[in-house]
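Thread: Newbie trying to understand structure tokens

Hi all, I'm a second-year student working on a class project, and my supervisor (Dr. K.) asked me to get a predicted structure for one chain before our next meeting. I've only ever worked with sequences, so writing a 3D structure as a token string is new to me. If someone could post the tokens and maybe explain what I'm looking at, I'd be very grateful. Here's the chain:
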Amino acid sequence: MRDHPRRPHRAPTPGWTAIVALLAFAGNGLAAPTLVKDKIKITKEDDLPRHTYEVSVTVAELVKSWDALAPLAKQVRANLESDLETYDIQDKTTLQSIHGTLLTLDLLDGNYDSALQQLGTLRELEDKPALKLTSGIGVESRIAAIRETGGPEKNLEAYRKAFGRVYEAKVSALPYEVVQDVLQSNKAQMEIFSEPLLMGVIQERLEPMVAEAGSVSGPVAGQILGIYNALQWTLPVKDVVVAVLQDVIDANRVEKPNIWPARSLDLSDAEGLTPVLVAVWDTGVDPSVYGKRMYTNANEKRNGKDDDGNGFVDDVHGIAYDLHWHPTTGELYPMDDASRPIPELQDQSKGLFDMQAALDTPESMVLRQKLSELAQEDVKTFLEDLGHYTMYSHGTHVAGIAVDGNPAASVLISRLTGDARMVPEPPTMEDCQRSAEAFAKTVDYFKQAGVRVVNMSWVVARSSLENDLEQNNVGKDAEERKAMAREMFEVMKKALHEAIEGAPDILFVGGAGNSDNDIQFDEFFPPMFQLPNLMIAGAVDQAGEATSFTSFGPTVNVYSNGFEVESYVPGGDRVKFSGTSMASPNVANLAAKLIALDSDLSPPDVIELILKGADEVSEGDNVMRVIHPKRSAELATSS
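---
Reply by user tm_fold:
Sure, no problem. This is what the structure looks like when written as tokens:
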């Protein structure tokens, strides 16, 4: 799901961006820029210049004709090389993006020696062990096959055979116990890759924008280059890649150890617990699933009136805001716009989560087949339906994780409403100002209700505002959209920061996001905040190793299980989802249990107990504190 001021970000990414992520398989690499003393230091992404490119043909023509694409490619290269010469960029992820695009250009231009040199630097800059080992294997295999056979234009079958032989040798030589999740994820991504799917995304998301504006921003230009590369070079070896990965997976299947059962803290039989109210600030919760464990406002009736005069109608179990930040009613995200039945979407949504978790479940396999066979005209409806269901089910799933094993915990609903359309409505300053008011009123509601812990499995990214402005052709160029996005972002960021800061007796817990990026550099809030009553959780898997998708940064102070976490969805079925959206409520769960054991604990006390009980694990430059619920509880009860 796209980050958006009116839409919480969660994993996996349903919709068009999940498809564009497939292009990463090409193995784009990077080369470190030469440091020059007078370069301008860049400490946040917003300080980089924006580039706008005039486009006189359709996107479909660009991704299918090098003659049409070449002028754009030349301009993109010139601007990115100039940026690297001018700026000292203090972020590895941003460098990966810039140099990844340059590597694509090297490959398309036939500059293979340059591309191979960059791959070495790519691996040096990658902290996650599995990604460090697997980065660039597809590119190396492609270059070797071109040099051996002359490329697919000269002899397609010879090229495919040479590529497969090199690729199989490289993949087979990898330490499977380290890279298994990445290989399984790559296989799943390749299985859904098809020309109609990508062209459907182009038709619905990019063509209308380009037709009206006659231009694209730098990020969109990069996407177009990536799609061309994928169609021309990745698609011809799709079945080869899938076959190689399947053979390696079948020959090496191993079960990772699961650290979580031994760390589990279950208070079901504990005595003397203090009741704890947990607010689930999300996309809504199905009250029928949790029954008597729901918060109930005794002064409110479900009658279409504001009985208690607090400004919210029918807030029996909590509050809700609509897409434009007006108070509304209803505990669950509405499914009125979905075209398929909920049971079908439930299976497909689970398949999407399983794909992200690199699992070959029946749901994942069915979804991959369906996506690969989609007709171009069906892409929009299919992906938007998945987006609707993800928002519909998300909050209920999060709530179950937050109160699991804690009979003292009850759930208060605070519902957000997202826009699941491939092209969402444009963000406006009026909406952002209303969101700022809503943040303050929501946190005040928490205070009045006696909430002790709030879970926020969502982020707002500054760049998403720019993206959505461009999608709706708002602003004359990329630089103007950058300025507009900054102004809107600051209004919302300031309001939420002040609201959390003004509730020192409530512990807020948020997810880091699922973009494998530095949240401080790219500016995601609330994860970028540093407050004494806020914890930000990254995601690790069943073995306690960082997931490939988890975002990171200096404010991500704890990690917890975000891999195949089972919980309820609306209606009461239990389903396994993955993401930092699941890692965050696991931390909130521990916090609520500690408070149930000792109600005198303040938010800083709880944070200290969680961090003291955690294990420190190093991966590259990143040091993760992985929660140990049982140990933290022992520290709490022994003091």
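A couple of things are worth pointing out once you decode it. The radius of gyration is 24 Å. DSSP finds 24 helices and 18 strands in the chain. Feel free to ask follow-ups in this thread.
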